[in-house]
Specification:
alpha+beta; Rossmann fold; 4-stranded mixed beta sheet
Length: 189
């Protein structure tokens, strides 16, 4: 389930031939019956909400008693190396000072947010290191990130962004870090 039409199209393509139903929906008003779900997964999406407590309350509504929520998010310092790279390139000089995408839901508050809706049974923080082999891989990621204020001709165009980055920076591997947090919550009643 997602509200993004392109993401849903990709999900349909990847799950063709399997018993998977792809549904358009918003996690603030899920198209599910109350107490109908045994499991919900909110992976790297709650930070898109200005009201994550409302989204978690809606997820709780859909879980049956004993139902489980698996939630995952990243730290507010995730990918700061990419912020610094984009700022150094001059394509978005303010990138390193702009707030994190993970400001509403992050590794530091996910457990408290879930706890307000469900009983938290498990919390795990993992340090992840992501390596991009070159600026082509970096551009493929950055071209779709809503955080950066890139020139319009580069938004959604990884090839053009690659060329712009290579004109400004040495083409080398880029390593980024992030704390990824997983929380499991259960609806007790």
């Amino acid at each position: 389930m997602d509200s993004s039409a392109p993401l849903l199209a990709q999900a349909r393509s990847r799950t063709r031939g399997h018993r998977v139903q792809v549904v358009a929906g918003d996690f603030h008003a899920l198209p599910l019956r109350t107490r109908s779900a045994a499991l919900a997964v909110a992976a790297f999406c709650l930070y898109h909400s200005a009201t994550p407590a409302a989204a978690l309350s809606e997820l709780r509504r859909c879980l049956r008693p004993g139902g489980v929520l698996i939630a995952a998010t990243k730290s507010t310092t995730s990918y700061r190396e990419l912020d610094q790279l984009i700022a150094a390139s001059g394509l978005d000089p303010e990138a390193a000072s702009r707030p994190s995408l993970y400001r509403t839901v992050h590794s530091g508050n996910l457990d408290q947010l879930v706890h307000a809706a469900l009983t938290v049974r498990y919390i795990r923080h993992d340090e992840h290191v992501f390596r991009f082999d070159d600026l082509d891989q970096v551009a493929a990621y950055l071209a779709t990130s809503p955080k950066y204020h890139l020139p319009s001709e580069l938004l959604g165009h990884p090839e053009a962004l690659t060329r712009a980055l290579k004109n400004r920076l040495p083409n080398r591997p880029i390593t980024t870090t992030s704390t990824v947090t997983y929380v499991i919550g259960v609806r007790d009643e």
